[in-house]
Amino acid sequence: MTQQTEVTGTEPKDAMQIRLRAGEWLVALKTSETWSSEDQKNLDQWLAQSPENLLAFWRLEASWDRSRRLSAIRHPGGLRLESARGENWFAVLRNAVAVILLIIVGVGTIGVLRLQLFGGPNTHSYSTGIGGHEVLKLADGSTVELTTSTAIRVAISPDRHVWLDQGEAYFQVVHDAAHPFVLEVQGQRITDLGTKFSVRRSGDQVDVIVADGKIRLESNAEQPQYAAVFLTAGQAAIASARSVAVQKRSVKQIEDELAWRRDVLVFDETPLRKVAEEFNRYNATKLIVADEDTANMDVGGTFPTAGVDSFIRVAKHVLNLRAEKRGDQVILSR
To answer: Are residues 127 and 248 both part of a single domain?
Structure first.
């Protein structure tokens, strides 16, 4: 599903309040040196409350990211952001966001200017619902494949820039050394060096798998906690705000992990806990594992992503589990 939004005219009071709250969250996220998983959980809950919350945050974050790419920013007194240090640097960033918020709230008839502040007409949003699967063909010839409950923003002109705000996507990038393809996700930045790769955002963790070519993975924090790493075909990485771990993947493992591109899920001695998590991403019916012993059972097989009912039958008749339905949940136990 493609979404394009133009902001024009005077905004309702509620919309102004949403944008103010989005600005507060953004300042906290971008300037806090003690941002925790609990902070991220609270932000994710606020974003999930309504599409308006998510859209307001996306737009303000796009403006923030654009400002970081400028070589210098001046406030009315002439202070250059690039010369600021320590607390002064954070103060300038806070002031920059405050100026944007004042423009949003204080002026009701500058829709064109506001659209430019939030990324311009060449930035578009795309998303899928539960069980969704879409392939986007970008203007530069690259493709992005979105799986269930995924949201991205794309800016192809003048920069090739993508933000993965939720979910998982597979990228096949047309390499252009003069115009790098940059993906930002959960505090991490991935730069294409001619490749095919997948990225999954899960809480405060980012999982990357390279199927072909090469990428550079680095933190986009002002004070990175780890050095940039280069990943080539057959490598995967798990990155968080503080660390990155690189792992080797066989061709079979990569095919299995990317089987969602064929609308199937492949499990090979996979704990039932993980199997339930994967089915829950794709289905409205949620699997709940009742106890630790059951959760650690190994499961193997290939199932349609939408085949939760088929798996429940396997759980009952092959794994000899009980499956008790409670509303939109199915409780699995021995």
So the answer is: yes
